Amino acid sequence: MWKMYTKENWGVRLSVVKEGLFKTYTEKDGFRHNGLVATNLGAPIQFLFSAEVRYSQTKYTPPFLTTDYDGCGFYRKIEYVDDVQQYAGDSVDIVRHPNGKGSICIRFDKVGSYKNKRWYFQEELRFVLYFMPGNSLATFNTAAFDMEQNKMITSIIQNKDLGFSYYDMCLSDQAMENLVITMSPLSDSAQWAIVEALRDKYAPKAVIRRSNLVGKLAR
Asked: pTM for this structure?
């Protein structure tokens, strides 16, 4: 892994605690935006996107993510299989109806969840984000939602670009408190000094430790 992802003997591995890693936003029942009301059916909910972000996008709709990482599908353990297509090939099912309209079913639990068995040694865990094309404000209006749904299906069929290839999530103020930094097994004293200086400035509570592979690899 070190040889695959690092240059020469450089590199560190960052380990964090998933709970409390990202900044959260409380949305109360009956939240209002532009005169429209969204209900959460009861108690306030902790979201990973602010209401302003979730209900003010005209080209895409952010995912519905709460602090229940496992329940909302945000955090998942990768499954390693012989044939990825066999497991994830039906992730998206698009149906065209006789009236000219269409419907779409997306198994988000399958999207980004599988890799070939040759990568099993990685034991990968992922945070998965999915953004849908369309105006997020359509959530408030049934007629508008139907129109946006048709646009969304067309955009997916045509594989239209959303205009961005990554999204920066906001970390919580406590995110770095439980950070563990593992040094490359071939790192030298100069590299340790650089990492320690960065740790002292940006994450003073972080722990720096040696790799279990120290002394077991040849330069």
From this structure: 0.71
